[in-house]
Amino acid sequence: MSTDAIVLLKDDHKQIKKLFNDFRKAGPNATKTKGDIVSKIIEALTVHTYIENEGMYPAVRKAVPDVEGDILESYEEHHVADLLVMELMTMKPDDERFDAKTTVLIENVEHHIEEEESEWFPEVRKALGRKELQQIGEEMLELKKKAPHSPAQPSALKKTIDAVIK
């Protein structure tokens, strides 16, 4: 398995996009199925944004100043996703706005993934060597072991609060 940071993040993106597609395919009356899928989306996004915020973004920000604006925007996109995820956690799958809120979350995250993969991942790959990307990836794998799986866990809440006060 590769420890290249960009490869790891793209693998996460694939898994997250599959969950999004599963949600879309579930159909309008698949309330329980959609609830189960959204629980998986919440967990996947919580872990993923944690390792990006704690591992990838600080390392890249220091090493590749040209993408600082992109990273700051990514922090804000994570913050929006965090808020939607927190709201979804308090909802039931049969709530009137559950599907709409999930759709907005999906659209925001897909936009975020597209920007990362097409705009700044290529710049980061050019600027950092293979060894450095592998080192960042190894750190991200370690972070993943201790990452929160629920946005209500203290380490996930800290990330949300940091977005407001920093």
UniProtKB/TrEMBL annotation:
A UniProt-annotated Pfam family: Hemerythrin
Occurrences of domain Hemerythrin-like (ranges): 5-123
Protein name as it appears in the record: Hemerythrin domain-containing protein
Organism of origin: Gordonia aquimaris
